[in-house]
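Reader question, answered in our methods column.
A reader sent in the components of a multi-part assembly and asked whether the whole thing could be modeled at once rather than chain by chain. We filled in our standard form and ran it. Here is what they sent:
COMPLEX SIZE: two components
ENTRIES:
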Amino acid sequence: MLDIQSLAVSVANKTILKAIELTINSGEIHVLMGPNGVGKSTLTRALLGDEDYTVESGSITLAGQDLLPLSIEQRAHQGLFIAFQHPVTIPGVSNLQFYKAMVNAHRQAQHQEPLDAIELLEQVKHAAQQSGLAEDFLYRGLNDGFSGGEKKRNELLQMLLLSPRFAVVDEIDSGLDVDALKIIGQGIRHLQQQGTGFLLITHYPHWLEYLTPDQVHILVGGRIVQSGGAELADQVADHGFQAFAA
Amino acid sequence: MCAANTDLQHHLQQHYSAGFVTDIESDTFPAGLNETVIRQLSAKKQEPEFVLNWRLQAFQRWCKMKPPTWAQVKYAPIDFQSIAYYSSPKSLADRPKSLDDVDPELLQTYEKLGIPLHEQEMLAGVAVDAVFDSVSVATTFKDTLAKAGVIFCPISEAIQQHPELIQAYLGRVVPPGDNFYAALNAAVFSDGSFVYVPEGVRCPLELSTYFRINAANTGQFERTLIIADKGSYVSYLEGCTAPMRDENQLHAAVVELVALDDAEIKYSTVQNWYPGDEHGRGGIYNFVTKRGLCAGTRSKISWTQVETGSAITWKYPSVILRGDHAIGEFYSVAVTRNYQQADTGTKMIHVGKNTRSTILSKGISAGKSQNTYRGLVKVNPTATDARNYTQCDSLLIGDGCSANTFPYIEAGEYSGIVEHEATTSKIADEQLLYLQQRGLEPEQAVALVVNGFCKDVFEQLPMEFAVEANRLMQVSLEGCIG
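And here is the structure of the entire assembly that came back:
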């Protein structure tokens, strides 16, 4: 369970988020919606532990563990995964080499032996198939020369490899075609069934037809102004955010 | 792919792991340099008259020369009279006949460095010559090489046993008057490796020399000469370490390569001389002249270097492409941190027709260090259809360091093609943040990005060295961020 209580976050001395309350159980999908510039990405950054984002007050716990004193990688080891809106490119480091470092960093944090190469390759191939990525892709540089869609599929692949306790999926839908949306939807459902909790951040409600959210939250002016079921997303789809005053 | 990654944690624990001192009795000349010292040195090595005369002439020239000042490096003037020019472990006064005669303390030094000299313990396929201070202590796999007709021995031994080859080639590529440090080396060189690969022979083993400076206040002036006769091939690796000491130590080596028709020499270096501490105290001054002569048609010389050590590196492994269709290559990774200074690069001199050269240089700077690429591509009027491709990439870690690129191109021949590309990048905070979110420690994250940056060069290294190079990089970059 991810539990956020009275969270206030500032960036460069400007308060962006005020008193965010959010509780997401294992296996639940929550959707956070809101117009541009209301602090959706700020919440992601505060969760992952970016130092430029100052938590002024409140708490964030994951499965009972206080995340705030932890470093970025320690939070990741606790089972927090962020699927980024703009994944970085690292030339010369193959995807496979990167997955190996990633998987083994997690295993090391759990005091497990590194995964042997054959086992790793099998898991990677399986995850690649689920993400709709061809095998030759594994040997290319990390996101080097990838299309927007390939980068997002690569985020899904990593999420499938790590099977995290909780994942934030930040605007993964932007710029994706229908096939990619479907595949990412399937991947998320698969992990949800295994108990991963999700916070999906979006300002386009249309891709939610591949998923069934447990709750939808509307973020306006640094606060969650309304929470409800999937019907709230339909409301946004039909009328936009005007109805939700800060 | 990246075999060293799993060992990362272990290696991040260590600083300069080769920094120990071996407690061994040595026979060291008093500090100072004059004609008498050179005569003594030559006598100690029982050299023929022509070598002594060659040394003395070099000394005369050196006395009239001044240290070069054009490099982008800063250091206090060196007092050449305060350095000892010869140091030898005492037990080697009579050169050991076999490894069994070598002082166990010395053998342990090499074991500590991860270079076991006992042949039975060696990884198959690498013959090692180990140079400790001024003398070669052991050359392994001599018999296997002898069967193939390959000569691989200390240069001091070659001077005695193969004077005809020495007379024909010594100083042919790097003449004593070439530069200040080359002249000094010619006057006082003590040992180094000698390789001769006969016509048509593909050397059955990787040849390797490990250089170790142990004694205090001692300069190391080794000289290496490699001759690849027609149609032959040899791959040669060189590794270097030194103890941690507060004062600076001078290393002024000369390496000469000669490739005849259709011959190929691949020369790889992993240089990890002591770089000094985090305040810039101590460390090796690495002033080295390395040059290859592609003398024959279709000959090829390839330099690959990974430079992580030394307080100051001043080094430009070069190729003179004299034979038609000759090929010269230079692949380099130079890492500087703390107060290290590196001014390194290459010279490709195109003389023959249709000659080709490739330069790929990767500079990584961290801390307060300074990293300079300096390269010359010269196309003589005789070199019709010569081609060069140069790529220089710099990677900066943090804000206190700097990178410079000085590419000089002298192209006198219009039919040639000379291409140059250069990039400078910084490890982006977003890259580190992304990798940390995926569970990597900041140091692992930097190592991974750097590893990707160096990939094209590491691929040129023989397997064993590639792994070692990777580890070195990780150790070198420890604590560079945060």
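What stands out: Confidence is low (pLDDT under 50) at residues 1-14, 118-125 of chain B. The first strand of chain B starts at residue 26 and ends at 28.
Send us your own complexes using the same form.
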